[in-house]
Design a protein that fits this description.
Blueprint lengths: L1 E3 L6 E3 L72 H4 L4 H6 L5 E8 L3 E12 L3 E5 L5 E5 L3 E7 L1
């Protein structure tokens, strides 16, 4: 069932032929083991850095290195203005396109589940990130899920 390994005669168990493979684990040979008390625990002494640049090449310098500091930047750091709602402003998104159609009469078809289609008709009054609002002919507002929309018919 077990055999001895080649280093210190500890038992080694054979792997099953089916299932997961577990690689054999052996201990290091005794001659390679070290005692922690015998190790030198002194930190290395800092020395000069070797020059890695090829001969004749100018050293690579960045601002702030070795006395070439350019000083503080003038003025505050300008923040990049990001649009708060990019899907509502980028015409590549359905939300932005539908916003251009606010006030028009529409018929929107929704996919409910895997094979049920239903539709709602009315005047498009508002478009959000994940919803559209229709005013139906009776005057009631209907909030619709944007992510289940399959088709939108727009009537001029």
């Amino acid at each position: 069932m077990s055999k001895k390994n080649q280093y210190d005669n500890e038992p080694v168990f054979e792997q099953p032929t089916s299932g997961y493979y577990f690689p054999p684990m052996f201990r290091c040979p005794p001659e390679d083991e070290r005692n922690i008390e015998d190790m030198d625990m002194q930190p290395p002494t800092p020395g000069p850095m070797p020059d890695m640049a090829p001969e004749g090449a100018a050293p690579f310098m960045m601002p702030g290195m070795l006395g070439t500091d350019t000083g503080p930047m003038d003025g505050p750091i300008a923040e990049e203005p990001y649009p708060i709602e990019p899907p509502l402003t980028n015409i590549a998104y359905l939300q932005a396109y539908l916003r251009t159609q606010i006030g028009k009469r529409v018929r929107i078809e929704f996919l409910i589940g895997t094979n049920t289609l239903t539709d709602r008709s009315g005047t498009l009054t508002d478009v959000g990130i994940s919803y559209v609002i229709l005013r139906d002919p009776s005057g009631a507002r209907v909030v619709c899920d944007l992510y289940s929309i399959k088709f939108v018919n727009i009537f001029d």
